[in-house]
Amino acid sequence: QVQLVESGGGLVQAGGSLRLSCAASGSIFSITAMGWYRQAPGKQRELVAIITSGGITNYADSVKGRFTISRDNSRDNAKNTVNLQMNSLKPEDTAVYYCNSRRGPINYWGQGTQVTVSS
To answer: CB–CB of 99/82 below 8 Å?
Structure first.
C-alpha cells in the first residue's frame, strides 16, 4: 500500500502562483511514477503532469510553460515527495487536484486538494 498526503491548495488571483506537495509513504520502493491530475466540476479527471522514477516528465498542453513538476526521492526518511509549482494561474485551472502514484499496474490516489483561481 502507498499512502499519499497532499498539501498546498487554496484561493489565488489570476496570474498568481501556488505550490502543491504530495508525500508518499508505505510501500514506496517500487513506485515507478508520481504525478498530478485534476478534475473540474462536470468534467473528467485529466492528467496535469507526471514524473517517472528516472526523472522523465510529461505535461498537459494546457499547463506547459506554466507548471513545473519535481520529485524528491529520499532514502533516509522512507518518503517520496512530488511537488507541482503552478505559475501564471488562470481561472480555467480551477479544479480539485489529485496526487497519483503508480506501482506496477496499481494506481494510488490522494484525497484531493482544491485550487481556485479567481479572475
So the answer is: yes
Under DSSP, the state recorded for 55 is -
C-alpha grid cell for residue 49?
Answer: 503532469
Distance CA 19, CA 84 (A): 6
**Those residues with Cβ within 8 angstroms of residue 36's Cβ, 6 or more apart along the chain or in another chain:** 20, 22, 47, 48, 49, 50, 69, 82, 84, 97, 98, 99, 100
What percent of the chain has a predicted confidence (pLDDT) above 70?
Answer: 94
Give the chain's mean pLDDT.
Answer: 92
For the stretch 63-89, pLDDT in tens is 999 999 998 866 555 568 999 999 999
Residue stretches of the chain with pLDDT short of 70: 73-79
The x, y and z cell numbers of residue 82, run together, are 512530488
Nearest to 89, CA basis, from 64, 56, 117: 117
Closest CA to 40 of 62, 18, 68, 17: 62
CA distance 36 to 99: 5
